[in-house]
Amino acid sequence: MKLRSRDILRVPENSMQRSLFKSMGFDDQSLSNPIIGIANSWNTIVSGSYNLRMISERVQEGIWQAGGTPVEFGVISACDGIAQGHEGMHYILPTREIIANSVELMVQAHRLDGIVLLGSCDKVIPGMLMAAARLDLPAILLPGGPMEGGACFDGRSSDITALTEGLGMLKAGKIKLAELKELEDTAGPACGSCSFLGTANTMSIISEAMGMSLPGAGTALATSAKRMRLARKTGREIVKLIKNNIGARKIINRKSLENAIKTTISIGGSTNAILHLLAIAYEAEVELTIDLFDHYSKEIPYLAKIYPSGKQYNVPDFERAGGVQALLINLLEYLAEEVLTVTGETLKDNLAGKDFPETDLIRPVDSPHSGEGGVAILKGNIAPETGVAKPSAIHPDLHKFSGEAIVFNSEEEANSAIINEQVKAGNVIVIRYEGPKGGPGMREMYKPLKLLYGKGLALKTALITDGRFSGTNNGCFVGHISPEAFEGGPLAAIKNGDIITIDIQNRKINLDITEQEIKARMANWTPPKLEITGGYLATYARLAESAAKGAIIDARWV
Prior knowledge:
Blueprint: H1 6-9, H2 15-22, H3 28-32, E1 35-40, H4 52-65, E2 69-74, H5 80-83, H6 92-109, E3 114-119, H7 124-135, E4 139-143, E5 152-153, E6 156-157, H8 162-171, H9 177-186, H10 199-209, H11 225-243, H12 254-267, H13 272-283, H14 291-297, H15 315-320, H16 323-331, H17 347-351, E7 376-378, E8 386-389, E9 400-408, H18 411-419, E10 427-431, H19 446-454, E11 462-465, E12 477-482, E13 499-503, E14 508-511, H20 515-523, H21 535-543
Parallel strand pairs: 1-2, 1-3, 3-4, 9-10, 10-11, 11-12
Antiparallel strand pairs: 5-6, 7-8, 8-12, 9-13, 13-14
Helix pairs in contact: 4-11, 6-7, 7-10, 7-13, 8-9, 8-19, 10-12, 12-13, 12-14, 18-19
């Protein structure tokens, strides 16, 4: 077993470094073991990170049990929910690169032999997986787990997003303030990632499906004993990976990434997963294009219908139905089953002998919720590179929608117009200058769609943007439109009253004017001035690539 930590812990050459470790209580025995980092995104701001201190303690126990030495360091974690609908959302997607970079820097500076990654929320898990792929060291990701579903509201088990829907209902006179206040106390009954199938839970499921998390780790509840047992086992398994020299790229490769795409499609996962899988592939040096998502969406059946795609089930229900393992068994004929996982065994081996009762939530391939999956890549004169839709969250009646454009140059403008009833049935709401560069930071257009739902307009309007969407959104929406408006994409040419047609079945999104008219309008166009001119966000705006490439920062051009 070759250990990188020997570079800094040899006797007598590295007595200074050894003394620094010993000043914290480490002894000769512990310094002879593999030194294993725990990148912990624990904090008391983010519900999904709140339980990670306890989980880390169990991981450390497992590492000690297996003959390793754990060393822990902190990683930032930001909450998409708290950042929704205001300036803070500019900063959320850019945290992904900071997380990946900080894990890389700590692991490399201290010559760690392996890494356990503890994360839960939307940009933390992808940032950590990006770091794992970049470093190519033994690594296991352990998600924090979802929270339980909340009290019943509007015919479903509530989650945090029900509060925004409730706000729209309050403004429309459908509920009273006291009902909304009561919902505040009951929608989030315990810590964890939000109980709907948003980006956090989508990425947790993906991590297990691609083999970077232990079987069962994707959706075990945040407060469950199962989550604690998985934490201790994760500690033991990382030591085995180091002893067997199994680096992350033996697990994160073309076949496992395709498994991840297929899994995302089969559950109608968050469209943000497209950004993140493209970024993880980039770090693993795997060529992956956005068109592959659409290719598999036409092939992979839709097997698990979880809110927001349907009201009946949430992620805790999915866990009780067998979780990721039950899904993968049903999906196995479409997957590369020989891929290696962090157990040291293949996906097929991990699933061998497992059996789960059939449920309506996780269906077999011969009776899916739909013959096609949950992601669609649209193109047209509005989106020459790409636009991303989520058919599983869009009512079938809205799969083809034409309407008059009502144009806004920021999310705030759109939210104000919706609240003040300036948006009418039949409108296609255009929100632009919210892309990776123009936002900057590619904000989620979560709030306008929730306000439309609360106003009773969700099935009567559509929304398109160069920003992105939360995994909990539904209605008719197309995001990630590229090139973004700030870079001169055709989205910048749209005027109020233009007719826009969205055709999901045929993967088209078009503006009903000629190419010559688009060019004429753009001839007089100049990009708006960015309001944010300093700090990391300004740096991100200069360096970020198109959403069609995962909004990555390409190190080859920095």
